[in-house]
């Protein structure tokens, strides 16, 4: 049962990392310090890790507020790495090393889907700072909810489903057009 709970928490943290890279790390460290995680790494509940993770959240929020559209590719890379680390930080003792790859895949799915949705919202007339704030708020809320095992599974399924939906919509964009040679 511990593996099922740790897997759910790790998947939820990884899905939340697709929205905001540092928030799941902070949520995992805080939950480990409070004893809410089933299989966190030994360093997860150290006070310096908790404080450092929350400082990273603050820095990322400030960076998104000041420069919201900067380095989209670097942001996705940061989120993928953070997804693997968040999964491993939260469930590393129960599911060692598998969490790095699985967390990176789930975070990539959420990050790619959100990148497409955010670009569509901005192209449709949305404010880039407003969309960044909504995405950051969703990342913080998702990180807080991710430590609940069943919610973690739901977040991961939602991230993969959202990616499939975005990819299908992008495929239909040019439907009916033909190439003239």
Tell me the number of helical segments per DSSP (H or I, 4 or more residues long): 7
Number of strands: 0
State the assembly state of the protein chains.
single chain
Quick one: biggest sheet? none
Low-pLDDT parts are none
Beta-strand percentage range? under 5%
Mean pLDDT: 89
Order of helices and strands: HHHHHHH
What overall geometry do the principal axes of the alpha carbons give?
globular
- Measured on Cα atoms, how large is the radius of gyration? 17 Å
Structural class: mainly alpha
Give the helix level as a range of percent: over 70%
The domain count comes to 1
Q: Span from first to last CA? A: 61 Å
Features:
181 residues, mainly alpha, 7 helices
Give the SSE map.
Blueprint (H helix, E strand, L loop, with lengths): L1 H16 L5 H12 L12 H20 L5 H20 L6 H26 L4 H18 L3 H24 L9
Helix pairs in contact: 1-2, 1-4, 1-5, 1-6, 1-7, 2-3, 2-4, 2-6, 3-6, 4-5, 5-6, 5-7
